[in-house]
Amino acid sequence: MIRIFNHYLHRQTLVQVFFDLGLIIVAIFSVVLSQGDGAGQVIPFAASHGLSLAGCMFVINSASGLYQHAHNRSLTESCARALLALLIGLPLAYGIFSLVPTNASHRDLLILAAMGAVAAVMVHRVYAAHPIGQARTRTKILIFGSGAAALSVGNTLRASDPHAQVVGYFPGPNEDRSEVPRGEVIESRGSLTETALHLGVDEIVVALSERRGGSMPLRQLLDCKLYGIKVVDIATHFEKTLAQIKISHVNAGWLVFGDGFNQGAFRSAVKRLFDIVFSSAILIVSAPIMLLTALVVKLESKGPVFYRQERVGQNGAVFDVVKFRSMRTDAEKDGKPVWATKNDDRVTKVGRFIRKVRIDELPQLINVLKGEMSLVGPRPERAFFVDELVAKIPYYAVRHSVKPGVTGWAQVRYEYGSTIEDSVEKLQYDLYYVKNHTLFLDLLILLETVAVVLTGKGAR
């Protein structure tokens, strides 16, 4: 894993991104340089157009979810995503290189090279997601511990990280009860350091269930680190592997003394400028869609077009969120707040569609312009539920240290949920965002939001 602007990314993901961008640039320049004497005049234009196409394809592939790990995605789904990206990328390549100032034959060659490179990138995206007979470079990880926490780490790695190889579990000195399969317990070859070096381990995850005096061999762990082996605690492991802050494995000290949670005036000013510019642009572009939505909502059922509801914002401030009405007007006729569920029968036919493609959220851009919300942040919750969740879930109030968002890290990473348990899962993503949020992460979330809308997946 590599940390870029506070966000963890797989090294292989970055390699794939640069390979795809390089493929486009190499294809363009191969055609230009084959033109002989006329190449010098075309190079500056080909370079700028090639970089523009490469940048656009990065955005398209990211928005299509083609750079996300595909371990739970079928080959058919990957092909469908690649086809969608191809249908957008081919006309884009044609349009961009139609503008290159050169003779017709050279321009036609450049257009063919650009379109061919786009097609090659799509084939590579599918192949990289579902390699056949391809050896993956895998990180060897030793888990220090053999209890329930260690088992949780091992299961998480196998389920979520195809680039990780769990070499086994090294029991702690005071762990009386093992929860891991006996065949995966590593036979000691001396000290922890000697065992890790013998196995060629790249990383050690400390997941001890018992930390009484003598359980943590700090000198041995330091020696491992001095030999170039990464050593991380269980909370950091989940943070970088799942992009979550697991509240079952963190304490206040880890949150206080660790890095992150940097708000600051400059960060707030940049985020506010970003919100104003992008929300204004989205409002202008989506104005026809919003007008049509208002019309069909009004025609389908009696009641107001917009739905206003009190939500809790930054620092506990209460504000009225604005959405297109997607439920019947008597959705809460007894006056008691009710969790919205995945297949809620209170949702109208039009409401079901606009909720699926997130059109109902567009009026919240007004809340963004007013400064009550941000484009990206934890979703705002109703005060009734906030009081309940704060009382039952540790650190829940931390999510109110930033402005709530129209979309958020939990919304693009977790399926729809309407229980206390679901709120815990989403909180763990929200805590990761609050701890590590940057403009870079905001842009990634916006791109993943597009992928969620296109596929109809994700939480509300």
From TrEMBL:
Q: Which UniProt keywords apply?
A: Membrane, Transferase, Transmembrane, Transmembrane helix
Q: Where in the cell is it found?
A: Membrane
Question: Principal localization?
Answer: membrane
- Transmembrane ranges, per UniProt, are 12-33, 45-67, 79-97, 109-128, 276-297
For this UniProt entry, the molecular function terms from Gene Ontology, in alphabetical order, are: phosphotransferase activity, for other substituted phosphate groups
Q: Where is the Bacterial sugar transferase domain?
A: 271-454
Q: Which InterPro entries match?
A: Bact_transf, EPS_sugar_tfrase, Sugar_tfrase_EpsB_2
Domain of life, per lineage: Bacteria
Task: Quote any Pfam family the record assigns.
Answer: Bac_transf
Give the record's GO CC terms.
membrane
Membrane topology summary: Multi-pass membrane protein
Question: Which family, according to the similarity comment?
Answer: Belongs to the bacterial sugar transferase family.
The protein's matches in NCBIfam families, at most eight in alphabetical order, are given as: EPS_sugtrans, EpsB_2
Q: What is this protein called?
A: TIGR03013 family PEP-CTERM/XrtA system glycosyltransferase
- The organism is Paucibacter sediminis
